[in-house]
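In the design runs reported in the main text, the only information available to the sequence generator was the tokenized backbone. The following block is the verbatim input for one such run; it is reproduced so that readers can re-run the procedure and compare outputs position by position.
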């Protein structure tokens, strides 16, 4: 009887001791497809633990390269913001996780600017001040490529 009890306890111990570690189990990563827009710049907000990438067309890139901080006609910008997380594969590294928002800014042929934001997080449902966000997007400096 002692041998049977010992075998049962051993088998239970084996099954309960084997735990599959899934570090990405709660991580919901979304890959953003910019379509025909090109990467312009990126930023990190360490306080809110977010990372943002700015995408735009050729007119948008030229607008940010100028000093007047006004979008050229037919400019299209998309500022994509993610929550970032620790990278489980590399110590000290971070990776993008939950997609928080996609801010879109367009300038039509006459130079009229339209702004919209799409929030995918319930925490981020606060509508930002459009004028401040437009100034913020226009403050980005393009990444210099060799």
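Verbatim output:
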């Amino acid at each position: 009887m002692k041998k049977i009890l010992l075998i049962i306890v051993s088998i239970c111990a084996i099954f309960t001791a084997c735990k599959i570690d899934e570090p990405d189990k709660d991580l919901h990563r979304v890959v953003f497809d910019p379509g025909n827009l090109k990467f312009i710049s990126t930023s990190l907000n360490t306080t809110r633990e977010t990372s943002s990438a700015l995408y735009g067309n050729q007119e948008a890139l030229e607008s940010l390269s100028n000093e007047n901080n006004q979008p050229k006609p037919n400019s299209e910008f998309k500022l994509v913001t993610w929550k970032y997380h620790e990278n489980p594969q590399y110590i000290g590294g971070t990776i993008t996780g939950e997609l928080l928002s996609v801010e879109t800014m367009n300038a039509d042929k006459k130079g009229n600017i339209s702004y919209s934001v799409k929030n995918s997080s319930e925490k981020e449902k606060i509508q930002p001040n459009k004028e401040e966000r437009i100034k913020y997007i226009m403050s980005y400096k393009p990444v210099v490529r060799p």
